Amino acid sequence: MSSENIESIVNRRYEHGFITDIESHGLPPGLDESVVRAISTLKKEPQFMLEWRLQAYRQWREMTEPTWAHVHYPPIDFEGISYYSAPKSDADKPQSLDEVDPKLLETYDKLGIPLHERARLAGVAVDAVFDSVSVATTFKAKLSEAGVIFCSFSEAVREHPELVQKYLGSVVPRRDNFYAALNAAVFSDGSFVYIPKGVRCPMELSTYFRINAANTGQFERTLIIADEGSHVSYLEGCTAPMRDENQLHAAVVELVALEGAEIKYSTVQNWYPGDENGVGGIYNFVTKRGDCRGDNSKISWTQVETGSAITWKYPSCLLRGNNSVGEFYSVAVANNMQQADTGTKMIHIGANTSSTIVSKGISAGHAQNAYRGLVKVMPQAHGARNHTQCDSLLIGKNCGAHTFPYMEIKNPSAKIEHEATTSKISADQLFYCRQRGISEEDAVNMIVNGFCKEVFKELPMEFAVEAQALLNVSLEGAVG
Amino acid sequence: MKQQNLAINELREAVLRMPADRLSATRTAAIASLKQNGLPTLRHEDWKYTDLRPAIEISNQWLAAGANNTASDTVADAIATITSSLDANWLLITNGVIDTSHFDRGASIEIARFSDTSAPPLADKPLADLNAALLNDGLKIHVHAATEKPLGLLIIDAADTGASVSQVNIEIKIAAGCDAELIEYQASLGTQDSYCNSIISMQVEESAHVSYVRIQDRRIGHTQTARQSISMGAASDLNMASYDLGGGLIRNDLDIDLNAPHANVVFNGLYLAGDGQHIDNHSRVDHRVGPASSSQEYRGILNGRCRCVWNGKAIVHKGADGTDANQSNHNLLLSDHAEIDAKPELEIYADEVKCSHGTTVGQLDETSLFYLRTRGLDRRQAKQILTHAFAADLVGRTPIDMTRDTITALVGARLAVLIQEELL
Amino acid sequence: MLEIKNLKVRIGDTEILRGLSLSVKAGEVHAIMGPNGSGKSTLAQVVAGHEDYVVTAGDVTYMGNNLLELDPEIRAREGIFLGFQYPVEIAGVNNAYLLKAAVNAKRLHQGLGEIDAFEFLKVAREKMATLGMDPKFLNRGVNEGFSGGEKKRNEVLQMAMLEPRLAILDETDSGLDIDALKAVAQGVNALRSPERAIVLVTHYQRLLDYIEPDHVHVLSEGRIVRSGDKSLAHELEEKGYDWLREVANA
Description:
The complex is a heterotrimer of chains A (480), B (424) and C (250). Chain A is an alpha/beta fold and 480 residues long. Chain A has helices spanning 3-13, 18-21, 33-42, 47-62, 102-110, 115-122, 140-145, 153-159, 161-167, 178-186, 427-435, 440-456, 461-474; strands at 125-130, 133-137, 149-152, 191-195, 205-210, 221-226, 231-239, 247-249, 252-257, 262-270, 282-292, 298-305, 310-313, 316-319, 325-334, 339-348, 354-364, 368-377, 385-395, 400-409, 415-424. In chain A, helix 12 (440-456) runs antiparallel to helix 13. The termini of chain A are far apart. Chain C is of the alpha/beta class. Chain C has a single domain, classed as Rossmann fold (3-Layer(aba) Sandwich), CATH 3.40.50. Chain C contains 8 helices and 12 strands. A 6-stranded mixed beta sheet of chain C has the order 6-9-10-3-11-12, sandwiched between helices. Chain C has a 4-stranded antiparallel beta sheet with strand order 2-1-4-5, with helices on one face. A two-stranded antiparallel ribbon of chain C has the order 7-8. Chains A and B meet through strand 19, strand 20 and strand 21 of A and strand 18 and strand 19 of B.
């Protein structure tokens, strides 16, 4: 397509001067090249970024939605989604929490996240994302003292283009999959982290994501680079307010660990799962991948997934460096009409690489919960080790628990062990507890927390507490 | 990768040359189905590790050459060797042609040909249409009562004077309360290409007990696709063991349906693969009603340039309370060029269930090796002993005692060849 | 027969033996005692040739030759027998098969022919009878599903069949009830001869009530800190191992 043609399409669609006209800087629903250009323009991106987005968009157009996951949902109208929205206060961004719109802070409070308190008390730097634009970033000074870059993705594109250009898409290529390609074309914002050589990040880094505006696709993009010998722990947590229409979320997270570096990425996900009849709820189609690029590097994923109507998520590790280590610890809860298809991929490429997978799936109500995982040992990956433990807990008669592990082993020195079990909370167990004076609800919580213990202990302390509480809330009314 | 298609026109001509009989209508329907659906490709989830193109190529060449199967006299020697090693009541299918001359008709087993009765309806399973289109004739077997000797099914293909393509279809019914022993032996010989596509369906009626031994000892390089569909009645038992020793491209599908309560299924398997072999064992157990149990253990020993696939799927349907399903798969990888793709799957829609699976891929245990060496055995000898031991456990699980010596000998001979290459 | 001089051994990054010397002559029974973690089992494993243990210094000669150069199976065929503290279970390998293969490996090494199958079974059954073992153990997998006592008896059976020159028994008494202990001791005593040496590695003095040692050595922190006759074992029984630390540190 010639540049004049593109130009004319842009003009045709937005002849009224969309940037200033559209209230709250949102774009009308629909996706074509002009939308991609508009997003890039709004974000004042350099040329390379626009080119990258456009290529992704063209590749996405050629791709079809994946259907292999064990989930069912009505077709998504990609033309019915608005690909950019921003809060009103975007024009003059607050420089500190004091400047943040009090209404915004109130929303956080309603969600049970006292942001400023948490930030001060826990010493956590918070890059809070409301819809698609960063509104508050704290502790920047302390971080920059250590040489750590922790900022919004948009800012990184402007301030650190050389790092973005070097690493963006190097772990999750643009055309990796349908949703990754879509994200690459229209991603709104997200977080960027760079830890310099030999630096141990002085605090845990955290981001809270929100989805608020109706019919808004949320396309976060996170890029974390841990340079040689560095260490970082990153926390991601999300909640979403009640909403009746399904919302698409297609995030991409890329992690790069260079020689001797370690990245710990923890997630608590409790987006709106829809009501008990399956109305509303988030569609969560996420691509998360870490690249242990250097020798002796380590990437550890820990996730507690309780939310979303549909979850399609496989945080993975490419174990390229010799002696590199990949870990995946997961608790996935599906209640009511929720559907989860989640797991991991461990690709062993370097010598003496090892991976550990612990997956705990809990199904209740009418939910369907599937673990899908791949352990692949390449021919050159001498001495690879994997241990997978994959357990399902069923609560009630109408839910489903499924396990689809794939093992592709091409090196004879590999030691691969996979175990899976399925169990239920039995009436006998509950009766026993009740006879000892424990309520049924408490007994269920107790059993579930015991079932998930191995994963919770991988979470940072304050997150573990939150995760446990969340689990209890998620399973309210599951028994009885 | 271009998918090669089956030469439908040549196939239709070959079918037209077959005599009109009770199978004709199904053959016509099968051609239409083949034309519409084709054969599975790597894009099908159940076939992602097994490429059927060699089977298609052999079939096309065979169709182009006039679709003739001509066996030489050497097949008689092979048959004699097998039938004398196992004292069973043998039904033969040689290059797709039924031969009842070794079979002793007694009161307890009734047999009939499809051409004398009726052909079963076209099954909605991959390769069933290819089977139905080219099927010369099929067999119905009804076991009424316990038999003195096991019933033997020898499926043998000779490809010594030209390529051979054969279709086998056997329907077995085990009457209620009956104890039955069956041996299925698939073999082939000859230096030309050979492809055998078999379907064996078995209905195990209420309270029947079946012991089933499956031996696949085809010539290295020959192709086999074999589907077994077994339906279990109330309180029936199946104890099955299968041994894959030879062949080139081998694909076995085992489908077991547990339709009534208190059925109990145990099936175990051993696959030994060396250079040029591709052995794929797929199983699917449908627990439709509980209580019922299914349990499987497959083991593989891989050496040389080869690939094995193990895919065990257990589906516990809604309401199948009291299901106990267990799968395990263990692999010994001995060469840099061997690959194993393992996929244990559970789909569970009921909560009163006990399901588990375990898979391991690895090498011989170093502690055991050291122990044997402190007893004076050298490393090579110790490795041989432990490799044989890995297989011996499965050999020991044959449910028919009189097959044990033959299986021990066959496994021993195959392993000796397989691990004679440098192990150290 | 066995001369160990200033032996230093580590596993991974941990140094376990720190300059151990020991001399064992034909016809002698030595007891090596010491607290847990003192290096007793390491010594046994090193003499048998376990590859995880790295010798960083010192010499070990056996029958005048450098033992450290030999593979574990050659050491075994030359007459070194290790009775394991935790004998490994090998499913699928028939006990009789292993026993016969081991006997034959040694016989071939000595230039003798393979043992006659009938003769082998006869000898094995006799030895089992004296150890109070059920002959059906011959047809079971090696140590598969054996109780602790059965495993130890099985070790002694193997030793009796292989007739070693130097037998090292690593905690052979642990986990045995009194009857099993007596049977095992009887099996060991039956092997005592002027041509043969026996090294008993043990934590407790109890076994020594049944197998009387000529020499008792106390191992602590990777070195022999005291040697004496059997009275030393009684002294240890009374005083425990704590006083050793003072000796070792002195």
